[in-house]
Amino acid sequence: MTTALTSGAAWLAKVAALPRRTLGRSPWPPDGKPAPIPIGRVFHVVRVPAGSAARAVRYLEARSIPTGPVLAQPHAWSVLVPTWLVDGRDIPGGVLLTGRDQTKVLRCPQPGRPASKDRYWKNAPDGSGQLMDPPALAEAIAMTIATSAGDDGSNPAHRDPHEGLPS
After folding, report:
1. Fewer CB within 10 Å, N side or C side of the chain?
2. At what angle do helices 134-147 and 50-62 cross, to 10 degrees?
3. How many other CB atoms sit within 10 Å of the CB of residue 111?
4. Nearest 10 degrees: CA dihedral of 135, 164, 107, 62?
């Protein structure tokens, strides 16, 4: 039995199908494991350390700035950005992953389905194709780094509950 995809999952399935045009097929295996979604065709990924990413997303949300899809993992969050972002110098504090030189994928859980503890959508794709604005992300990271410069991380109130286990 197949279940209907949410609009965000349908958008990711379309990204996974490009350029083959095998639309309508779900890239997620029946066991619910994450599917490999190609990077570089529709979006690039900026990988940001989990603590900085969580603070940056909270900063953007507090200012009602759309974040686009953000995939959270214990040590780093993956932020989907437009492909016009050419080099990582635009995002201090993040690492740009592209699919230009070789095929790279982002292993994504299916939006709208239960995720694992170690990989979940902080902000799932909504089907609109909206991605994070790189200058907004850069500003948010810079602002959160500046405001937390005196924070040694010892205050547990500063930790997002999904950032992973303390080291």
Report:
1. N
2. 110
3. 23
4. -30
